[in-house]
Design goal:
It is a single chain. By secondary structure, the chain is of the alpha+beta class. The chain contains 3 helices and 3 strands; from the N terminus they run H-H-E-E-E-H. The protein has a 3-stranded mixed beta sheet, with helices on one face. A hairpin with a 4-residue loop joins strand 2 and strand 3.
């Protein structure tokens, strides 16, 4: 659910103090743990290191991101891959295709020499 219009967007004051009156070149990466802070127009152009629970992920604020929260651009879960029989078959087919491509590339220079 969104925040009440009468309250306005939640923008952390300490985060704005870090970037107030500075350019993105002067500040560099601004580390923050405020994932729920809304990206304001003043933040556009700055790079934020948003904490995802383990490390800081760099997020470059653009005009399209204004109104969204910082945490939306720093995923907390790491997707590895889906498993199962179908995935194993796809991996085996991909590996076989790489092997045949390597053999074809190796055979091509030998054919040119003859």
């Amino acid at each position: 659910m969104t925040r009440s219009i009468s309250k306005g967007p939640y923008i952390e004051e300490r985060l704005l103090k870090k970037i107030a009156g500075k350019t993105p070149d002067q500040v560099g990466v601004v580390k923050t743990w405020y994932r729920d802070c809304v990206i304001a127009p003043e933040m556009v152009g700055f790079t934020f290191g948003v904490h995802n629970g383990k490390n800081h992920i760099e997020v470059f604020a653009t005009e399209d991101m204004v109104g969204h929260k910082l945490g939306e651009f720093s995923p907390t879960r790491k997707f590895t891959r889906h498993g199962g029989k179908m995935q194993k078959e796809q991996d085996a087919a991909k590996k076989q295709a790489e092997i045949t491509a390597a053999k074809a590339a190796k055979a091509a220079p030998a054919a040119k020499k003859k």
